[in-house]
Amino acid sequence: MLFVESVGRATHALAGQISQTSSLLAQTLYWLVVGPFRKKPVSRKSVFAQTVFSGWDSLAIVFFTDFFIGMVLAMQSAYQLEQLGATLYVAALVGVSMAREIGPVLTALVVAGRVGAAITAELATMKVTEQVEALQTLSLNPVRYLVAPRFMALLLMVPCLTLLGDLIGMFGGFVIGTTSLGLPPGLYIDTTFEFLTAKDVLTGLLKSAVFAMLIALIACQQGLAAEGGAEGVGRATTRSVVTSFIMIIVADALLTAFFYMAG
Amino acid sequence: MTAPREPVISVKSLVKTFGGRRVLDGVTLDIHRGETFVIMGGSGCGKSTFLRHLIGAIRPDSGEVWMFGQDIAKASEDSMDEIRKKFGMLFQSGALFDSMTVGENVALPLREHTKLDDSVIQIMVKMKLELVGLRGFEHLMPSQLSGGMKKRVGLARAIALDPAIIFYDEPTAGLDPIMTGVVDKLTIDLTKRLGLTSVVVTHDMNSVFRIADRIVMFHQGRIRQIGTPDEIRKSKDPIVQQFITGEAEGPIAHQGEDYLDHLTKGF
Question: Which residues of A touch B109 (CB under 8 A)?
Answer without folding.
Answer: 138-140
